[in-house]
Amino acid sequence: MYNTYTIHKKAIVLCIFFLSHTFFGCNQNPIQTLPERSWVLMWSDNFDGKAGISPDSTKWTYDIGNSGWGNSELQYYTKRPSNVQLSGDGNLIITAIKESFSGASYTSARIKTKGLFSQTYGRFEARIKTPTGPGIWPAFWLLGDNIDQVNWPMCGEIDIMEQRGQQSAITHGSIHGPGNFGANAITKGYGLTSGRFDTDFHIYAVEWGEDYIDFYIDTYLYQRIKPENISGKWVFNTPFFMILNVAVGGNYVGYPTSGTPFPQSMYIDYVKVYKHS
Amino acid sequence: MKRILYTSAHNAWLIIIIIILNGCYDRNVDELLSPGFPAKGEIFIDDFSSDLIYAAFGGSDVKAFQIDNKETYGNSKASMRFSVPDANSALGAYAGGSYFSKTGRDLSGFNALTFYIKATQSATIDVLGFGNDFGASKYQIALNGLAINTNWQKVIIPIPDASKLISEKGLFYYSTGPINEKGYTFWIDEVQFEKVPDLGRITGSIFNGEQRNNSTAEKGSTITIDGNLATVNLPSGINRTIQISPSYFTFESSNPKIATVSTTGIITVLDSGSAIITAILGNAKANGSLTLASVANTLMPEAPAPIPNVNAKDVISLYSNVYTNVPIDSWNTRWKYSTTENSFIKINNDDIIKYYNLNFVGIEFSANQINASSMMHFHIDMWTPNATNSPNNVKVMLVDFGANGIYGGGDDVSHEIIVNSPVLTSSKWISLDIPFSSFTGLKTKSHLSQLVLSGTVSNLYVDNIYLHK
Q: Comparing A196-200, B29-33, B148-152, B243-247, which segment has the lowest mean pLDDT?
């Protein structure tokens, strides 16, 4: 999510993954033997409330502005209800709009739990219906609480969900840390064999322990990253906070085209964080 | 360098995705075989499917379509080649035709027609689609204005509601003309119906997705639903909008006692009152609606126009029950761009002309031109139910063909009088008695040949049109 300079290596990893996944997808559903873990809910937001109001200020704060966020993104993030509001029927809606705003051509929103909630290890999950369109870049991700002290990428980053709007049937899970950013990010894609992520809700989750991070889509484990898999230092043993955003354009996703439909909304049914019992 | 890396990675992605789609696609087709019409999706892969017939559209170059073995997609054996003729070619004015099945096919298991296309130059194909069976073409769809270039590109034309297509004969059609009067060539290959796994949801629209209002529809009148569209988000994330026939929709009236809608999208107003017309495509509500506040009889004047009291010997009458009228060629010439309809009605035995859908209407009497040289006034009675507040108006124009008595010829003169509030009043007879001196542009009046009524009111009743001293 942060400073992804090229994705060449990522793509190779993804290609290998896809070839293997294809055979699963077109035959029987793969049967996975997953580790049994029991969870205790530590934090959640179901986004209940009246339509048009802002999300709970005891749980979420905002990133505001159009600095490009290290990725040459085009949007201006605001906290206006037109960019981020409750739906009234239990969802949070983050909407990217094509409009002229303080020098930017697009507006959107990026909310985070920084300073309000963070946790080391556990299960972080959200049920989301993502937006679509070339140049649209929705994400649900975690950053190390110590980012202001040690800076990025030393703080660590766990991307539970990132999508490119021009590939609405594919989602990605990644980590970034020292030595594992830009071209060296550890990442993997998961493709739906039928259907798309923008037409239905899906559950995006990581289960994170002292020496592993497991990436799930719905109930399917599609990637496990362990300290021995990465070249850089394992910086994933401190509290992390959560971020939800819809970026428009950037190094990761490319730029919107005249055919990109606007506005584009990400619907979040809930966010839940668990700890091992 | 960064950009190059990105691009190559991106291409690798596409190849992988295609492999996945094809792999899954084959399996789906096997499952779709049913005892009814064949559920075959192939139209042209390397040759035609055996049930297909090609017919060129009338006026087109009948030899525009040929099978080509040289320029093919992915080095396949053959493609379809289309030679668009030059403008004014003796061969035909355009390239166009339809491929239809003799027997019909069950396409209900697919979600799109797909093919690859390229051309000798950048071009815009006027229309591509399916559902044209040279008959009723009940389920026709059209993709208009597709931009193509010299590279092969895959085109996806979504099926708005595949459950309707259980015995479809019209499988593929095209039509396009020269560009800047010059012909060119394009190729199409690998034409098939398929189930594209990552096609987005389809959304229907009627009235181009607009929320329209109609407060002047009368009992007994009909309104055709236009702007029937379907929009789908393609796997590339962009939207594609196609025109679709009304038969794909299920139309609904919120009040069937006031208005009903036929399966072909024609609204019939049954009575005065309110009704909202909406539509469903597949299982989802379509965008766009028509809110009707229809009227039954209130549009009509309750009383006849005031009875003229000018002495008959001082009058040349065009239309009145009181006087003997001169012959009139036409009360509605239906000139180009005129939307005006008219009918002749009676109110208490008084004959009245009703103009509706009025933008302008020509009334012509050139075969029996009127010599108004001794006349001093033009008179007309009018009644409108429409709003008459500013800037609404009614315009009255008189045209004289001049001494030569023919249209054109350099001596035609005319003048238009604009009538607006407070003279123009809603739902009330108004009598205009305009001195010819007010028609300042009407320099001559001995060969009066036309009266033109126009304005912003869509309904206008007129009576007692005459000239007098």
A: B29-33
Percent of chain A predicted with pLDDT > 90: 73
Task: Pick the more confident residue, A33 or B240.
Answer: B240
Q: How far apart, in whole angstroms, are the C-alpha atoms of residue A213 and residue B229?
A: 47
The topology under which CATH files domain A8-24+39-270 is Jelly Rolls (2.60.120)
Reduced to 3 states (helix: H, G, I; strand: E, B; else coil), residue A143 is: strand
Q: How many residues are present in chain A?
A: 277
Number of domains in chain B: 3
Examine the domain organization and report whether B161 and B255 are in the same domain: no
Whether B337 and B288 share a structural domain? no
Distance CA A31, CA A28 (A): 9
Which residues does chain A have within 8 Å of residue B235's beta carbon, measured at their own beta carbons?
167-169
- Whole-complex ipTM: 0.75
CA angle centred on A271, ends A268 and A273, rounded to 5°: 165
Amino acid symbol at B302:
E
Interchain proximity A8–B238, CB inside 8 Å: no
- Its domain, for residue B67, covers 27-194
Sheet containing B222-224: which strands, arranged edge to edge? B222-224, B266-269, B259-261
**CB-based contact A167 B239, cutoff 8 Å:** no
Query: B69 and B144 share a domain?
Result: yes
Task: Give the torsion through C-alpha atoms of B272, B275, B277, B283, to 10 deg.
Answer: -140
Query: A5 — contact with chain B (CB < 8 Å)?
Result: yes
Note the pLDDT of residue B243.
96
Distance separating the N- and C-terminal Cα atoms of chain A? 31
CB contact under 8 A, B5 and A136: no
The pLDDT of residue B388:
92
Strands B153-158 and B112-119, bridge-based pairing: antiparallel
CA-nearest residue to A11 within chain B is: B9
Q: What is the mean pLDDT of residues B302-317?
A: 94
A26 and B CB contact within 8 Å: yes
Q: Indicate the helix (H) or strand (E) that contains B243.
A: strand B239-244
- Read off the pLDDT of residues B145-180 as tens digits, 9 standing for 90 and up: 999 999 999 999 999 999 999 999 999 999 999 999
**What pLDDT does B23 receive?**
38
* Beta carbons of A181 and A235 less than 8 angstroms apart: no
